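Quick one, C-alpha cells below. Sequence please?
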C-alpha cells in the first residue's frame, strides 16, 4: 500500500516519484521523470510533464498543465486553469528538443490566480501573488502583487497573502517589511 493517494482514473507513468501524503485526483496524468513532493494536492485533469519537479505542500487546482521546464518550489498555489508555457516560438512543423524549453521557476509560497498565464523563461519570487487572468511576461519580485495584461506590480502582499499598505506592516498577521530601494523589492524584517 502506498503512502499517497491516486484516483483510479489518473494515470501515472513509470519512473515517477510521489511524496507521502500527496493526493492526485480524477483524470490527471503524471509523466515519466516527474518528482512530486510530500502533502501536495493535484486536482482533476492536471498534467505534470516529463522531468517536472514540484516541491512539498503545493496545491495545483483543476485543469492545469505543468510543462517540462517548469519548477515549483514548496507551498506554491496554482489556481484553476492557469497556464504555463515552455516555448517562446512554437511551431508544429519545426518541433524542438526539450533541452531548449524556457525554464520557469515559481519560488516558495507564490500563488498564481485562476486563468493567469506565465510566459516561460521567468522567475516568480517568494510569496508573490499573481492575480486571476494576469499575463506574466517578466520576472516577478518576492511579495509582489501582479495584475493585468501584461502583468505589472500593483502592490505588495504579506507572506500570509494580505495586501500591504504603505506602512508595510500586515494588518492581519502583523509581519513587518521594509522596501529596499536599491533593489526595488520588499524584504521581511
Amino acid at each position: 500500500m502506498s503512502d499517497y493517494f491516486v484516483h483510479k482514473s489518473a494515470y501515472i507513468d513509470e519512473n515517477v516519484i510521489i511524496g507521502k501524503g500527496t493526493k492526485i485526483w480524477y483524470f490527471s496524468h503524471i509523466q515519466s521523470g516527474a518528482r512530486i513532493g510530500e502533502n501536495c494536492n493535484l486536482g482533476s485533469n492536471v498534467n505534470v510533464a516529463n522531468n517536472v519537479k514540484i516541491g512539498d505542500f503545493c496545491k495545483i487546482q483543476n485543469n492545469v498543465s505543468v510543462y517540462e521546464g517548469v519548477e515549483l518550489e514548496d507551498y506554491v498555489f496554482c489556481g484553476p486553469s492557469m497556464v504555463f508555457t515552455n516555448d517562446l516560438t512554437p511551431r508544429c512543423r519545426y518541433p524542438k528538443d526539450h533541452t531548449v524549453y524556457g525554464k520557469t521557476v515559481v519560488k516558495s509560497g507564490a500563488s498564481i490566480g485562476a486563468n493567469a498565464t506565465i510566459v516561460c523563461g521567468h522567475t516568480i519570487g517568494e510569496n508573490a501573488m499573481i492575480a486571476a487572468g494576469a499575463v506574466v511576461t517578466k520576472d516577478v519580485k518576492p511579495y509582489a502583487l501582479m495584475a493585468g495584461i501584461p502583468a505589472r506590480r500593483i502592490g505588495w502582499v504579506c507572506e500570509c497573502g494580505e495586501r500591504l499598505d504603505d506602512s508595510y506592516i500586515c494588518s492581519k498577521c502583523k509581519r513587518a517589511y521594509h522596501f529596499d530601494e536599491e533593489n526595488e523589492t520588499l524584504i521581511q524584517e
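The radius of gyration is 17 Å. The chain has a mean pLDDT of 97.
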